Amino acid sequence: MKIILNQDVINLGEEGDVVVVKDGYARNYLLPTGAAVIYNKANANIFKRKADMIEKRKIEKRAEAASLKEKLDAVSLELVVPAGESGKLFGSVTSQMVQEALSKLGFEIEKKKIEVATHAIKMTGVYTITVHLYENESSQIKLSVVSEAQLKEREKKAQEEAKAKAKAEAEAKAQAEAEAKAAEEANAEEAVETTEEVKEEE
Known about the structure:
three-stranded antiparallel β-sheet; 5 helices
């Protein structure tokens, strides 16, 4: 079936594009949701009149996608998931999980735009997630998948390091105070000796 897209559809086309799709896809999804209209002379003329407006929107979308890509490329996500001792996940990482993590950082990304190779993420580790933006623009996000046990271990290590740092700082402070006191006492003794020498000379 020949249709005109009313909006951008991932892996199909952009607003105003004329495309040919399977009848079932058009009747069951594209037409009922308003994502497209049937291609005919009347609809073609409507879109022809809207061409300038559509092109203006495309330019705006390109600029937004470029700006969003720059921000997303700098993002590092961490997901804490249940896993066995070997690091094997009890389940898999989904695009929904990534979407929720991005949402917490203030990024509202449609789930269908997030590409997660769930069959590949079966272990804890660091992975790359693709977020499709506009046209051929996409962003690569670094995703760290850690188990609850690894998180607890990391928190324990951080606490131990914090304690060790606090202890080292306390020792350094005590040493500095002791050195300052020793220097003060030495200066006081030197002052007494100088006073006694002056008296002897008199």
